[in-house]
Amino acid sequence: MAEIKIVNPEALGKPLGQYSHVTRVKASEFIFIAGQVGVDKDGKVVGHDDFDAQCVQTFANIEAALKSCGAGWGNIVQFTTYLVHSQDIPKFMKYRLREFPKMFSNAVYPPNTLLMVDRLVQEPLLVEVQAMAAL
What we know:
Layout: E1 3-7, E2 22-26, E3 30-37, H1 51-68, E4 76-83, H2 89-103, E5 112-116, E6 127-134
C-alpha cells in the first residue's frame, strides 16, 4: 500500500481552490491515467455544450480506470486539468466543490495543475483531466 502524504507548506500559502500544493509518495507501483474526457465507453460525447455533464463523465472515466487497477480516489497523487474556455473555470470549481468531498472524504485534495488549451481531441469536448495514482 502506498504511503501518500498531501501537504500545503506554509511558504506556498493557501491553495486557490480544492487542491493541495504537494504530494509526497512512497509506493511500490504508480498508475498514469491518460487524459480522460466526456465520452462514454462507445466513444460518444456526453453532454454537448454541457460542461457539468462532461465533468461527470470525465471523472467517471477516471474512476473506472482506477478501479481497473484495484485503486480508488484515495490513491490519486496528482491531476492535470485542461479547459478549452476560461469562462468554464467557475463551473469547474463549482463541480469540484460539489463532488470532491464525495471522492475525497478526508477533505484532502491532491495537487492539480489547471491549463487553458485551444481545443481538445474533438471539437465539442470542453474538459480533459489526466491523473496519476500510487499503489
